[in-house]
Specification:
The complex is a heterodimer.
Chain A lengths: L3 E10 L2 E11 L4 E5 L6 H8 L7 E6 L2 E2 L5 H8 L2 E4 L10 H11 L6 H10 L15 H13 L5 E5 L7 H17 L3 E6 L2 H7 L2 E6 L2 E6 L1 H5 L13 E8 L5 E4 L5 E4 L5 E6 L6 E3 L9 E13 L2 E8 L3 E8 H7 L6 E6 L5 E2 L1
Parallel strand pairs in A: 3-8, 3-9, 6-7, 7-8
Antiparallel strand pairs in A: 1-2, 1-4, 4-5, 9-10, 11-12, 11-14, 12-13, 14-20, 15-19, 16-17, 16-19, 17-18
Helix pairs in contact in A: 3-5, 4-5, 5-6
Chain B lengths: L1 H52 L5 H19 L3 H12 L14 H26 L2 H9 L4 H11 L1 H16 L3 H7 L9 H11 L2 H31 L1
Classes of the chains: A alpha+beta, B mainly alpha.
Amino acid sequence: MLKVEVKNLFKEYSGRQVLKGITFSVQKGEFFVLLGPNGSGKTTLLKILDLLEEPTSGEVWLNGEPVDYSSSKERVMLRRRIGMVFQQTVLFNMSVLDNVAYPLKVRGERNFEQKVKSVLELVQLKGFERKNALTLSGGEAQRVAIAQALVTEPELLLLDEPTANLDPKNASIVEEVISHINREKEITIIMTTHNVSQVENLADRVAILDGGRMELLGTFQEIFRSPSPNKNLAMDNIFHGVSRITNEGTSIIDIGDGMHIEAAFKRVGNVTIHVPPEDIILSKYPLISSARNTFEGTITQITDIGHIVRLRVKVMSSKDFIVQVTKRSFNEMQLNIGSKVYIAFKASSVQAN
Amino acid sequence: MGLKVSGGVCILYEGIFWEEVLNITLLSLKVSGLATLIGALIGIPIGTFLGLRRFKGKRTIMRFVDVIMKTIVNTFMGLPPVVVGLIVYLLLTASGPLGWLGLLYTPMAMIITQLIIVIPIIIGITMSAVGSIEKSIREKALSLGATETQAALLVLREARMGVLSSIIAAFGAAISEVGGIMITGGNIRWWTRTLTTAIVIETELGNFTMALTLGAILLTIAFIINLALTIIQVKGARE
């Protein structure tokens, strides 16, 4: 298993600084999570760790040895000990079997049938061997991508938002596989995500990346239950406010600008809350529902990520909510930037820390 | 007696007619086929290399190099065969720099001529086919432990339909080409006469039966080539 040390890492693309001095280390067998919004430099950092990108300055050490990015021999040698799953699933135009066998074939291994078979069983794709990989659904394709990364039994696994584009069923299969291999094989894992609930279940330690800088580093408890929640966590749907308990036994959190969010927990005082984007319902008309939180807002940003569309909805001209809808309902609702929409979520969807 | 003889001549004539048609067709296929084969062996690696260049280097410089390179390749793709024929003639003629090889008016001279015509076509189409494969495919291959060469081969494999199209398009251009091989092959009967050059001479001589027969064969070959290209494109679109 690999120990990873990142020392004062900088990365610049044509004058634009993407990483601005990142330092951290990950122990052998540790599950390390990088949290942060889109554009915070998460993907770039993972690509540098996978030796696909070269840092502008700074160093990466693997098992106590500095990585020489200029040696193509060393790049190939180290990449062969590392597995990476990309956010955008890329598979080759060949059968699932050949896709999963590819990493073994480039290493000159002949007897791959058994390894491919057992890794496909692990990602619950038994019997998919002969299918062309490009005919698979998004979730199946991402599971093939995970099988490709795992089939060589890497010492370090890099996961770039492995569940971001997946439906809940596929996402839970992927999470199960990831936590299984972390426990069973003690592979060192570095995963990026912007889903906080994933972090609590999986991560040993969490780092928050924002604008190319590492803002916070610690265990989930240390970060999300820290007594000083004034740190501006640059995450999706994270709000800070003051909570009070209502007569019904729920809490009302005042997050400023006259906005109140109702939550199912009982807390008093300063809290940081999080609403998972997938728990928010989007509607073009005012909603009459059991959801305790309903707000009117305007769409300010539309990001197409495969069959899911992420929308940024501005509420009360100050608070941004990230909402996920499937592409199909996005098209059916004929949404645009500037469209007036209503968002709703249950009190039980609001997570505190 | 006279009748018998004339009948024999007739049969003899018929036999020679078809023998010549076969000879011409086979020579055409041989010259264009070999030119395409050698052209593919030279053009595909160069096209792959140029197509992969896109993945490296600084963006602004790369774009500049890209434009220059594409312009050059495209110019050569549209090279008039007659001009190629003229240049190859001047090289191979007895007093030319390569005259000592004694290749002028041989099938080899024709293969060289068509080679110069097909190489830019194969490079151009292969280059854009390889270039159209997502950068992420190469990155993924490298991430999975491939060496640079293995990753390049994988990109080439992903671009296989485009590469196959380049070969078929090159063969199509070669088999229907007339000006270049007319000059360097000399259109010598039973030796360097191909479908296209034969049609020219037979039409001039008023032998329309021969000209039309050869024309029909050429058309059939063109049809088969286009059928193959269309099948590849339809298959490519479905994938």
